[in-house]
Design a protein that fits this description.
660 residues, 24 helices, flat, Rossmann fold, alpha/beta, 18 strands, 45% helix, single chain
Length: 660
């Protein structure tokens, strides 16, 4: 039977054409996906959703695009494939220019494009400065706006060879460059190029740029998968166990059936968090696929444990998140804030997966300020600033759970138990009895449940044909290593011990060594653009504090803020004396304590010989014990401007403002 379109009419014809078009598009999409399957797997992209395929096909067709929303790795990959397929149809001299917000972003985009173009004759060139020379075989040029414009001015790139321009994050690009220069660059290309841009929103500057440089663009709205998620942020201290204590408190507030994913930046943090939570009675497991061999059967077993409630908390890191299915979880806790916003969004399953997470909880300490402020600025996510539950809140939640469990069980139907309840109400020692029952419910019963669940999991794993490549394998290797070590290096005799001068000298040190001296770093909310200088600050310290040479050990001047280091014993008096001190420009001095930093130059021999990283793998338990013996630090005030990173850099003095 002939089913050609000419035999149909009206609505039937339209439906047939739509169906045929969708079949053709699906076949083309499958063909392209297969061609790039190896590269996509290496980039962690599991599938191409409708939005990604629309971007890919539009770029391949040479259409101008206005992309509204945050570009995820999935979408960047789709755009990259579109450019590669389009370049195959053009002459060998034609090229694509991708303009990014900064060098870091350009390097990241370059990694994606290089991976996609692997195996083809299309080369990728990333403008990062240095001695790397541009080659005639480079057909995809990537760089920040400043570097791309410089290449144009120096005639490294020929304008007549540019076939397409992609402005990634146009709103950010226009914030850091004269929009007239960028528009002139587009206008100066002899043959009107394909132009596409992405932006979080179409502000006035973006709209003006589009009206001048982008002819009749198609608009593509990228659905924000994080829109349906409630985002909370909590202020925590910078001591070792502050974040793990916060996680413990939050876990108490979640429902009994909640499945929680905790994500860290590093594998050593995974070890620390898992050790602490396990010690405190939580059903927790860890996954670090970049360090341990997790087989397919091990992953299936883990998923079953999570679904059955044997594991309620899973701890992992960013390097392992792509090997997991985030749809198994309802709540996510961010132990660390990653440097790249894309990594943060990937934690919700942004690589072509559906989002099932309902709540997101970020723990931010002073060392996270830089990444957190950058994350807010780039993604536009509105975070609700919240307070961690107090001990009283947690006790009330536990009692509520006890009441709900008692109501569900309804043991008062048992006449014997009901009679004993009456006796208990009249007994003068009922407080002691209640205390015992509460201890059994809150401590003993959870521990027994945990042991039973652990035995069941071990039994199930032992029946599996394919051994699980998890921590047991690592433990076996460690034990074997210890035996080998003992065999190769037998215990030394007392005589041999006495012949070691360093050990004998160290044992003679009976007097306690003084603690290492510390400097205290101050954040100053004034920079070079405010007319502020080191000379003015030192003069101010001399006048107000009466210190010789101002007492400033180090000073770092930035555009909008500064840092100054003082000796620990002088810090409090300096802070008090300089509060609201008048400056030459008429403003009042804004100064706050930043993170306290240790000075390795003046450490004692005892400390310099320790050399142990607190959160590192098998040493997690010792680190916990050491940290628990220390006093609790004062929480930093995120709104006071105490902002410093590990290398002394800073984001701003704004602190964590909800929705800022």
């Amino acid at each position: 039977m002939d089913n050609s379109v000419t035999e149909l009419s009206g609505e039937d014809k339209a439906q047939f054409e739509d169906h045929a078009a969708s079949d053709d598009a699906r076949a083309e999409a499958d063909s392209i996906y297969k061609a790039y399957s190896e590269s996509l797997r290496s980039l962690g992209v599991q599938s191409m959703d409708d939005t990604a395929w629309r971007l890919c096909s539009s770029v391949m067709a040479g259409k101008n695009l206005s992309i509204m929303g945050f570009i995820l790795p999935l979408h960047l990959t789709a755009i990259g494939i579109g450019f590669l397929e389009r370049l195959k149809l053009l002459s060998e001299s034609k090229m694509v220019v991708i303009v990014c917000g900064d060098d870091t972003e350009a390097e990241s985009v370059g990694d994606v494009m290089s991976q996609l173009s692997n195996g083809s004759d299309i080369e990728v060139f990333v403008c990062l400065g240095g001695d790397t020379a541009f080659s005639s075989s480079d057909r995809i040029i990537i760089g920040s706006a400043d570097r791309v414009l410089k290449c144009i001015e120096e005639r490294i790139i020929s304008l007549s060879d540019i076939a397409a321009v992609y402005l990634k994050g146009l709103d950010r690009i226009l914030d850091g460059i004269d929009k007239g220069k960028l528009a002139d660059f587009i206008d100066s290309i002899p043959e009107k190029p394909q132009v596409l841009y992405s932006a979080l929103s179409k502000n006035v500057e973006v709209a003006e740029f589009e009206a001048r440089c982008v002819t009749a663009p198609e608009t593509c709205e990228i659905p924000d998968q994080a829109d349906s998620i409630e985002h909370f942020v909590y202020e925590v201290g910078s001591e070792l166990l502050d974040k793990t204590n916060a996680i413990s408190s939050l876990l108490e507030t979640f429902g009994s059936g909640s499945r929680v994913l905790v994500v860290t930046n590093t594998g050593s943090d995974v070890d620390l968090v898992q050790a602490v939570l396990k010690k405190r009675g939580f059903a927790v497991e860890k996954v670090v696929t970049d360090r341990e061999d997790w087989s397919a059967s091990a992953m299936r077993s883990l998923r079953k444990d999570i679904e059955e409630g044997a594991v309620s908390v899973l701890v992992t890191n960013d390097a392992s998140i792509q090997d997991l299915d985030p749809t198994m979880f309802e709540v996510i806790i961010h132990y660390g804030i990653p440097e790249k916003p894309e990594q943060f969004l990937d934690r919700f399953g942004s690589r072509g997966q559906a989002v099932s997470i309902k709540e997101s909880h970020c723990l931010v300490n002073p060392l996270d300020f830089t990444n957190f402020h950058y994350l807010k600025k780039v993604t536009g996510i509105e975070f609700v600033k919240s307070s961690l539950p107090t001990s009283a809140d947690i006790d009330a939640i536990r009692l509520k759970k006890l009441f709900e469990e008692a109501k569900l069980a309804n043991h008062l139907e048992n006449s014997q138990i009901a009679g004993m309840v009456d006796m208990l109400e009249k007994d003068p020692n009922r407080a002691q009895i209640l205390a015992l029952l509460l201890h059994e419910f809150l401590v003993t019963v959870p521990e027994l449940k945990k042991e039973v669940a652990e035995l069941a999991r071990k039994d199930r794993r032992s029946r599996s044909r394919e051994p699980r490549g998890d921590i047991r394998k690592a433990s076996k290797n460690v034990r074997k290593g210890r035996k080998d070590t003992q065999r190769k290096h037998p215990k030394k005799s007392a005589k041999e011990e006495r012949q070691q001068p360093y050990r004998r000298e160290r044992n003679r040190q009976t007097e306690p060594l003084p603690p290492a001296k510390k400097d205290v770093r101050m954040y100053i909310g004034h920079g070079s653009e405010d007319g502020f200088s080191e000379e003015e600050f030192v003069s101010l310290v001399k006048d107000k504090c009466g210190l010789v040479d101002g007492g400033v050990k180090r000073f770092s001047l930035r555009k909008h803020y500064s840092f100054a280091d003082f000796a620990e014993e002088q810090a409090d008096s300096v802070l008090t004396a300089l509060e609201d001190a008048p400056l030459k420009n008429g403003e009042k001095l804004f100064i706050r304590k930043a993170t306290t930093i240790s000075l390795p130059r003046e450490t004692s021999p005892q400390q310099s010989s320790s050399g142990q990283e607190e959160g590192d793998g098998e040493n997690a338990e010792q680190a916990i014990a050491s940290a628990e013996s220390q006093t609790e630090p004062e929480a930093s005030d995120l709104e006071s401007g105490q902002v410093t990173s590990e290398d002394g850099g800073a984001a701003s003095g704004e602190g964590v403002e909800a929705g800022a």
